[in-house]
Amino acid sequence: MVKILFTCPKLSTSGNFTSAMRIRAHLQAFGHHVDVCSIADSLLLSPSSIHSYSIIFTIHAYKSTGLLKVISEDTKLVLLFGGTDLNENMKYDEQRDSMKQVVDRCSQCVTFSQPLKELACSAWPDIADKVSTIHQGIRTCPSESFRFRDYLRTTYSYTAQSKILLLVAGIRPVKDPLFLLEEFANSELANTMSFVVIGPLVSN
User: Could you identify which of 71, 81, 144, 203 might form a hypothetical disulfide with 75, taking C-beta atoms 3.0 to 4.6 angstroms apart as the criterion?
Assistant: First the structure.
């Protein structure tokens, strides 16, 4: 059994937390002990506590820079790149330099798609040998009794009978859900369909 600490920027409503819990379940199925906490909380752990972990998995390179100050040289660090890392933070020199420190310290880096791996390797060609891609999967649990239109009617007083274009996403600027809404509103689909967004409001 390996004792593992899994850190991510936010808990509960974030996609990173969902990914962390999914990966945790797989690691636990192999008999490993896995604790999950926010990156901020991990920085408050005592040295003896954080050094008791053989491996630290962390999501989001830029937000993980603080970990470099508290982990020992003997602790393996595995980085899971967040989409924001490679699509947004890379645009800024200071943030990119901070990410490079984390990337250099890691034993292994993981992306969730081949395009993200290509972005990482393009930015830092010397890390190509330690970057792997693990494609994400979706587990669904369909219910025979749940009726989506009934849910919309009783919860939101939605009574239209048109077809529905459903976007499942956290509502936050970096995801830019309004871009798709604007494109939808300007298309012929708006005449025959309703646009419905289901997701948490995770940032203003």
Answer: 71
Question: CA 66 → CA 32, 54, 62, 171, distances in Å?
Answer: 25, 18, 9, 27
Average pLDDT, rounded, for the chain: 88
pLDDT of residue 159: 80
Its pTM stands at: 0.76
Identify the bridge partners of residue 131 per DSSP, sorted by sequence position: 109
**pLDDT score of 64:** 93
Instruction: Report the C-alpha gap between 32 and 175 in whole angstroms.
Output: 34
Cβ-contact 45, 22 below 8 angstroms: no
Q: Which residues contact 110 (CB under 8 A, 6 or more apart)?
A: 78, 79, 80, 81, 131, 132, 133, 134
